[in-house]
Amino acid sequence: MAITMMNPGGLPEIDVYRQVSIASGSKLVFVAGQVAWDADGVTVGEGDLAAQVEQCYLNIGTALSGAGGSFDDVAKLTVYVVDWTPDKMPLLLEGITRASAKLGITPVPPATLLGVAALDVPDHLVEVEATAIID
């Protein structure tokens, strides 16, 4: 695998992700922000943050598969959530957990979570972009 995840000493250990990813692969892949569209461009989970997070992660998996990789090759995620408040964290984690089960992964790459005022389509509650390293 091209990515090694770690929590170096001196930084807090966070259960849901690692603080550092070390890349050793040869192909750098940038996945555009994925929203909760299915293959036909229909929004999945309108009004349901967990369902939309799940679809975003599945879309990243599909994009990486097209590039010859998988979600296991993700080195960094950036998550944008509309009108973020900390009470939305359980829904975010629920969506990640459901997607992880479907993808057969434990997604622990470093991640940045940003609250935003809006996304491109009013029905979209979340957008997730990824950087991956593929051997």
UniProtKB/TrEMBL annotation:
One of its GO terms (cellular component) is cytosol. SUPFAM superfamilies: YjgF-like. CDD domains: YjgF_YER057c_UK114_family. One of its GO terms (molecular function) is deaminase activity. Transmembrane segments: none annotated. Pfam families: Ribonuc_L-PSP. It comes from the Bacteria. Belongs to the RutC family. This is Enamine deaminase RidA (YjgF/YER057c/UK114 family). It comes from Streptosporangium sandarakinum. The lineage of its organism: Bacteria, Bacillati, Actinomycetota, Actinomycetes, Streptosporangiales.
